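Q: I have two molecules that I believe assemble together. Could you output structure tokens for the complex as a whole instead of separate predictions?
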Amino acid sequence: MPQQRVVRTIIIADQQGLHLRQAVECAQAAGRYQSQIILVSGERRAENCRSPFEILQLGAGYGAAVTIEATGPDAEQAVEEIAAILSRQTSH
Amino acid sequence: MEIKRGVAVSPGVAIGPAWVLDTEEVRIGERFIATGTYPEEIERFDRAVQAAANEARQIQKTVSERLGEQYGAIFGAHAALIEDPNLRQEVAAQIRDHSFTAEYALSRVIRRRAKILAGLNDRILADRQSDLFDIEKRLLRQLVGQRQAQLQKLSEAAILLAHDLAPSETAQLDRQHVLAFATEAGGRTSHTAIVANALGIPAVVGLGPFLTDVSGGDLVIVDGNRGLLILDPDAETLERYRQAQAAQAGHERELIELRDLPAITRDGVRILLLGNIEFPEEAAQILERGADGVGLYRTEFLYLGRKEDPTEQEHFQAYLKVLRQLPGKPIVIRTLDIGADKFRSAVEPPAQERNPFLGVRSLRLCLHNKSLFRVQLRAILRASAFGDVRIMFPMVSTLAELREAKLLLHDVMDELNEEQVPFNPQIPVGTMIEVPSAALIADLLAKEVNFFSIGTNDLIQYVLAADRTNENVAYLYNASDPAVLRLIEQVVRAAERHGIPVNVCGEMGAEPMYAFVLIGLGLRQLSTPPSAIPELKRLIRSITVEEARRAAQAALQMESAQDITNYLRDQIRRILPEALAV
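A: Yes, here they are, computed for all two components at once.
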């Protein structure tokens, strides 16, 4: 399978910011892909997107931009799913 | 006497003896393992991770059953944090490189992480530190081989005072014996605060250091309404709080007595009081509060926070669960009412929308995803064979949309007929009136449905073009606005002319002054959170429809929301002096 590198930037839409449950969902999703996934927000990076804590420590608040970088055979789908999780609004 | 100010996170007042939770917890010293034995130590840590994660998942199950899945999910997240691959990697490195014990390595790593979160300068994430300490404690308990110190051991009623309470400890508190709690740490958005609110235990957090000033058994007062902890209260303060407590209890008792009395006005008009529910577990509240049925059963919970769309059977079971608890009562099921921004379907990824509130949401989303919509329609129809189920479409904005939804419903009915699956072919079909266009063509819509339900939350926001969560325009969002009252009146008249019932299912109906004016406008049904029903019953039993009608007519002539609010507030003060009309 060809190696892909996909990069996409999303904005945190939830007023609570990137919160614990989203981080957990993201880490679980990342675990299902072969691609290596890195998240970047401002000066902070989560080198291992399979770790919920790494994602949490990005400290991405409401309105923050988060860049998702995936490298691997399923990078496209991985970015798609993680972007969907991160840009969701869940608080009600 | 000493008064400490903190953050009020769960309302109510409690007076009782203090029960101070030991702040020492499990103390971990800097200890080392024998050189070369680190593989065994890492293995010991791995076993603890497994056991602790299992324990967290078990708590998730218990809490989900007791309080609902959204609270249980907190502990599901804890399990994931425990199993975080980086945590394992960092702890293993500490054990290997410094020969630390697993316990000490863990507490070093956790403390480092807590510091990172605290340094992010984000209030919500800073509150997440308590989640980290919760998982640390859980892992340590496994490592030290201790079983969880049960908080249920409390044998007499007391007020729990602690430095901090982990969310899992809060969830396991014994409601019989814990009158209230107060903590030095914590904030409004901490999970501990959310869980306390769900349990209905008065709570104040974020009080700052106070544990050194109090010993077990001291008399203390927790004022969860104002966020106060009062240590060693003087006689006067104590008396004042005792009276407040008695008044509160008396008020609640009185409302409970109203439960079995009908909601009839003094001139003999019966008003139907229905409840809004979101989860099947809330059906019990309908009975407890003496509601006539469910006026709005939201179904979004079936779709949120999951990876696959719910199956027909899951829908059906959720509906049946409510029907079984409320035999003979009407249950209005609202079809999926969710924005594309919140929705993740297995079928279609959500589109990015510039203005989600004017985008593909609610019925529009369903009509764009017919296969998804059919699943829910089939389940609602199947449930209609087992009770008084009614179906309601949200966010209808044109006649064509309503017809398309009805066409699909009939199509699904044909399908069920062919399969010989029983359902009620006469199932009442209603539409929500929450888009201004629907209100303006209510006479056209009324010919095609069996009932209306006015969704005031959205209607107000669309009529005044104001988002109430946007603090810069929230002042425009007002149920008292003349435009809102006039539009509601128009809908009621259209419904009357076509002989169909009309209901209000927004938050507006839950407030006594608005319930009064709505009855005056001609409403004979209101659907509100179950907790509001006793108070509304009391209002209804105190008024005549005639005086409400006169008040509504007077309000309709007024020029501003402020005038109308003042006028209605005066009316309520006259009728129900003890109601806290805001």
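A: One point stands out. Confidence is low (pLDDT under 50) at residues 146-150 of chain B.
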